[in-house]
Prior knowledge:
Elements: H1 20-33, H2 39-50, H3 62-69, E1 79-80, H4 91-95, E2 98-99, E3 115-122, E4 129-131, E5 134-136, E6 154-160, E7 167-169, E8 174-182, H5 200-204, E9 207-213, E10 219-226, E11 233-235, E12 244-245, E13 250-254, E14 258-264, E15 276-277
Antiparallel strand pairs: 1-2, 3-6, 3-15, 4-5, 6-14, 7-13, 8-9, 8-12, 9-10, 10-14, 11-13
Amino acid sequence: MDTSATFNFDPAFRVFRVPRWRAYCYRFLSVRVWGNIPSPWQKRISAWYSSFYNTRFSKHLIKPYLFLNYSDRYYLTKFNPPAGKYGFESFQDFFIREFKERPENSSPWVWPCEGLLCEEGKISELVAARIKSDRRSIHTVFGLEEDEIPSDYSFTNVFLHNKNYHRIHAPIDGTITRIQHIPGDLVVLRPWIYKQNPSLPAFRNERYNIDITDKQGKTWYLSIVGGPAVGTIELHPKVRVGSKIEKLHQLGLFYLGSTCCMAAPIPPRFHIKNTFVEVGMSY
């Protein structure tokens, strides 16, 4: 893969043109209504809702979904059904599709996922979120205290739309030095309804945090965040503390709905906020 960036960019990215009153309504419903339902109930409702996508009937959604969302008629030929299946038996199978061939890139740093880069900046410069009466810094996303991630690290948040590839891969070669599961809510992830704080759901939603230390001793912090209708976030069986991981090896997958945050010792070199990134693109 060429290390230069090839990305789609719209300076006035159309989804952010949602009227302020509508964004406020969506946020109220997500945070004040749905967000005040106890987390175990949210998970039960989400599991019930997402169970439809595991039915054989749901596989009939795949063709019209491809027609509506992809201009490439041969898009699906790049992927295999999951778990060694011979065909896509449900919509969920399509959702957790696997690459036939893993992307290749000579760059030492790559993007771990596919989606919209909805927030980017130095950790020291990003606005903290207020959750109820509690002020939370970016470090909260990763389950750490404010002095545990260097202030000059760069924070990125990639929103994975339903149509995006929903597996997360390692951005570097390194060693897994921490895995943390944080139970939480499953509020709506779509960043354009939160306007000035698109990463708000990452502060409060259920997530897995994975730290990878590279060969230079620098730690890359990843947070795999779930959203409504997420049945589960599933880590790869080989993802364990102390395990060596190669760049672009799979870390985990989502069963519907997700976002991926990362704190890295270097900023993105080719992408800026509101651009699209893909797995394996040069970071």
